[in-house]
Write a structure and sequence with these properties.
Elements lengths: L2 H9 L7 H10 L6 H19 L12 E2 L12 E8 L3 E10 L4 E11 L2 H4 L3 H19 L8 E5 L3 E5 L2 E4 L16 H12 L7 E4 L1 H12 L3 E7 L3 E8 L12 E5 L17 H8 L8 H4 L3 H17 L20 H8 L4 H11 L6 H36 L5 E8 L1 H5 L3 H12 L3 E7 L3 H33 L1
Parallel strand pairs: 2-5, 5-8, 9-12, 12-13
Antiparallel strand pairs: 1-11, 2-3, 3-4, 6-7, 9-10, 10-11
Helix pairs in contact: 2-13, 3-13, 5-6, 7-16, 8-10, 10-11, 10-13, 11-12, 11-13, 13-15
The chain binds alpha-D-glucopyranose.
Alpha-D-glucopyranose binds next to helix 7 and strand 10.
């Protein structure tokens, strides 16, 4: 330990900066974004959102702005039993959900998590859907539900061109999935065919949703002003209620439709090149889908740990950390898990956690190293929270402008491990959104099992609307008869 560093340790917070600390800060400089830059990024996203909504411009738009065919949020009268499937993170889940009108609750009756082995994640589509259908069959068997034909909400958290609520074409895989023969195909069809192949149970009507939509809808049953759904987990994305007259790709002018922004693809046309660091470029280059979902790769759980790892390797090679000795483990891609960032930044236990994590990575650390690692994690997670804030501000400002309001009060349903588990992420995100969207007051509801329950909710709302339109049709007929 150098004498400078020793003085720092002794002096606690008011320490004079050592040469090494100055170096650490210099490295991290490109990760620090001013409020002005964030404002500018927010405006760029607004432009891309407009492009994505356009009838012709959407073909080339990096932010896809996908219509979801969800036209209404819950009104609190929905009810019944549903099945839900949730595919899109590291696990796949099957749920039996009861929507209870009297208590305004969406109850998870039971659920089961099935792992998706790596070879299935990158195998054939048929293998993937057979695996899903088999897990569903086993669940129904255990729950004694095999004889019933329940409606099913399918949360499929990948970019899909939705044609109808039950017809959804996968545009491309993200987040480490890469099953052959699925891109360009209707995912609901593939699921139904796989259920048919199982041959010993049936499913009712199917509604397909993105996890952001599920999250918005499940929070929407509790709070009917919930009009934005946001995920910051393995991936990141948001949906919101857009005016139909702006959704040029879908017929009809009246009312609203939920739009799945797929904001993870922001920057895929190079528009974020000025803020990408050499580490972001490296993460992208070594991913299974280079050039795709650039914004997501700067923000979400699948990538944050890797950004930190690359920073640690480079700073050690430059002899700023760990006496210049890189361990074999640290050199291994994926070795620094995103959850380590939360553990290191945890108040109280953070320092002990850092020591354990670094030792497990085979590194020999000094007290100055501990402080530097904390600063690195804090910088990378802060940037993620601030970029999310810039994106959320773009969405909130858009809703406000759409409705010609001076002030917007709305609720955001949120899910995802990064938002839920990181000790300061949510506070930082909220405070920055407040600065970037001063005309909007956002309330955040953290969703529990949102994407699964929400899929059931979408199915329930679709059934309510179908039932209501039947009633209207019937009353029209009555009127005709009377006339
Ligand atoms: C990825 C997917 C998107 C999903 C998000 C969060 O960005 O493309 O559909 O909503 O991850 O899971």
């Amino acid at each position: 330990m150098s004498t400078d560093v020793q003085r720092n340790v002794q002096n606690g917070k008011n320490h004079r900066m050592s040469k090494d600390e100055t170096e650490v800060k210099r490295f991290l400089e490109p990760f620090r974004l001013s409020q002005k830059t964030l404002q500018d990024i927010s405006s760029r996203l607004t432009q891309d959102m407009i492009k994505g909504l356009g009838r012709h411009s959407h073909h080339k738009a990096p932010v896809k702005m996908l219509p979801t065919f969800v036209r209404a949020t819950p009104d609190g009268t929905e009810k019944g039993d549903f099945l839900a499937l949730d595919l899109g993170g590291t696990n796949f889940r099957v749920l039996h959900v009861r929507v209870n009108e009297d208590e305004k609750s969406v109850l998870k009756m039971d659920s089961e998590i099935c792992a998706i082995p790596q070879e299935i994640m990158t195998g054939t589509g048929e293998q993937l859907f057979d695996h899903i259908a088999a897990c569903l069959g086993t669940f129904l068997e255990k729950q004694g539900l095999k004889e019933q034909v329940l409606p099913l909400g399918f949360t499929f958290s990948f970019p899909c061109e939705q044609k109808e609520i039950d017809k959804s074409i996968l545009i491309r895989w993200t987040k480490g999935f890469n099953c052959s023969g699925v891109e360009g195909r209707d995912v609901v069809q593939l699921l139904k065919e796989a259920v048919r192949r199982q041959g010993d149970y049936e499913i009712g009507t199917v509604a397909m949703v993105n996890d952001t939509v599920g999250t918005m809808m499940s929070c929407g049953y509790r709070d009917q002003s919930c009009e934005i759904g946001m995920i910051i987990g393995t991936g990141t994305n948001a949906c919101y209620m857009e005016e139909m007259c702006n959704v040029k790709r879908v017929e009809g002018e009246g009312g609203r439709m939920c739009i799945n922004t797929e904001w993870g693809g922001f920057g895929d046309d190079g528009s974020l090149r000025d803020i990408q660091t050499q580490f972001d470029l490296e993460v992208d280059r070594s991913s299974i889908n280079p050039g795709v979902h650039i914004f997501e790769k700067m923000i979400s759980g699948m990538y944050l740990g890797e950004i930190v790892r690359l920073l640690l390797v480079k700073m050690t090679e430059d002899k700023i950390l760990f006496s210049g000795k890189v361990s074999e483990k640290l050199r291994t891609s994926g070795a620094f898990l995103t959850k380590f960032i939360s553990e290191i930044e945890q108040e109280g236990s953070g320092e002990e956690n850092t020591k354990r994590i670094l030792s497990d990575l085979g590194l020999q650390w000094s007290t100055a190293d501990l402080r530097a690692v904390h600063l690195i994690c804090d910088t990378v997670s802060s940037r993620s929270a601030q970029l999310c804030a810039a994106a959320l501000a773009a969405v909130a400002n858009r809703i406000c402008t759409n409705r010609g309001l001076d002030h917007l009060d709305t609720t955001v349903g949120v899910d995802g491990t990064v938002f839920k588990k990181h000790p300061t992420f949510s506070a930082e995100l909220r405070s920055m959104v407040h600065k970037l969207a001063p005309k909007c007051t956002l309330k955040f509801i953290v969703s529990e099992d949102g994407s699964g329950k929400g899929a059931a909710m979408v199915t329930a709302v679709a059934q309510r609307i179908a039932a209501q339109s039947h009633l209207i049709d019937d009353s029209d007929e009555d009127e005709l008869e009377e006339n």
